Each structure stands twice: as structure tokens, then as C-alpha cells.
Amino acid sequence: MSPDTEPGPDQLPAMRQATAEDLPGVFALLNDAAGRLAEHGVEQWPARFERDGGWRARRIEGYVADGHLYVGSDDQGYVATITLSPDADPDFAHGWPGGPGDALYIFRLAIAGRVTGHHVGDHLLAWAADLAARAGKSWLRVDVHRGNQELHHYYERMGFTRVGTVVTPSRRSGALYQRPSARLGSSTAR
């Protein structure tokens, strides 16, 4: 990796809506992120995301077909993926203040391990908040693994506020965070 090909702290590769041709890269990013989570003992995602026709694969493929999944890449390949849906996760929809409308919902945000530490995730969240604002939504929301305190602190540093917790027996997620759909500004809180 040379410094001139890695995103710097003030760069986010151009994000675009993913197509079916991007699915192998999306699954590779998700698997890379899942592996890093597992290395840190975080049981947030499955060990692997497979294009096996299972419910996860169908959901990801559906987000691509609906235009809700985005990717960013550079000359070395895929750098980031994020799903931004106008629909809340049905298991948590009742927990959002004011109801589930008027927001974009983050699902499966992942960045390539090679850009960890370059603040790509920070800029991706600012970009997502801008996209939510352009879509006429007041909020950018995410449900987070209830036990991942490091991730809770990250979202709080990025301007999100915890607005509730929904406990569903079959799910580990359910810590609900939201932030206004406006730009974080040129300097992000750390």
C-alpha cells in the first residue's frame, strides 16, 4: 500500500449505488469486516456472509435491486459499503422516537481493513447524513449490537445519540442511535 493510493483522513472514495456486478466485492468487504470483528471477540455478524441463497444473501441482493446499497472503491478495489434504507428493521421499528418514518437507516456498514485508521467510516457517516438530508429525511439511524460498547462510543463520537434499546430474544442488536441528517462539518469529534 502506498500512501498516494490510500484514502487520507479527509478523503472518501466516491460512493455510488451498487449493481449486481458489485455483489462479489460487497460480500468480500462484509467478510473482511466480519473477520476483524471475530478477531476482537465481537459476535455481531456471522463468521461469513455467503451468496448461498439464504436470507442474508437475499436481503443484500434485494438492497442492491432497490438501490439502497452503496459502494466506494479506489484503484486497489472496494473500500466501503453501506446500506441506507428508508425502512427500519421491523424488529426495532416500534422503538424509534416519533415512529420509524422520516429517516434513513444504516445497515451493514463496512470498510476495507487496509483503510482502517484513515477515518473512512467517519466520512462515510457524514456522506450518509447528507444523503438523508437530500432525501428529505430528518434522521440518520442505526441499530447497534447491544453488547458492543466500542461501537456505541464510536457512534456517539460521530454525533449520534442513543434513543432507546429494544430487546428481541433472537437478536443481539437493538441499541438505537440517531443523529440529525446534516453534515458533521469539516472536523469530526474524536
Please describe the structure with a list of short key phrases separated by commas or semicolons.
acyltransferase activity, transferring groups other than amino-acyl groups, 25% strand, Acyl_CoA_acyltransferase, N-acetylglutamate synthase, GNAT family, Aminopeptidase, 27% helix, alpha+beta, single chain, 7-stranded mixed beta sheet, disordered N terminus, 190 residues, GNAT_dom
> Which word captures the global form?
globular
Q: What proportion of the residues form beta strands (DSSP E)?
A: 15-25%
- CATH 4th-level superfamily: Gcn5-related N-acetyltransferase (GNAT)
Number of strands: 7
What's the story with the biggest beta sheet? 7 strands, mixed
Across the major sheet, the strand order is 1-2-3-4-5-7-6
Tally of discrete structural domains: 1
CATH class reads Alpha Beta
Residue-averaged pLDDT, rounded? Answer: 84
Query: Regions with pLDDT < 50 over 5+ consecutive residues?
Result: 1-9, 183-190
Oligomer: single chain
Helix content: 25-40%
Alpha carbon gyration radius: 16 Å
Q: In whole angstroms, how far apart are the ends? A: 25 Å
- Strand-and-helix sequence, N→C? EHHEEEHEHEE
Q: How many helices does DSSP assign?
A: 4
Care to give the gist of this entry?
With 190 residues, this protein is of the alpha+beta class. It has four helices and seven strands, in the order E-H-H-E-E-E-H-E-H-E-E.
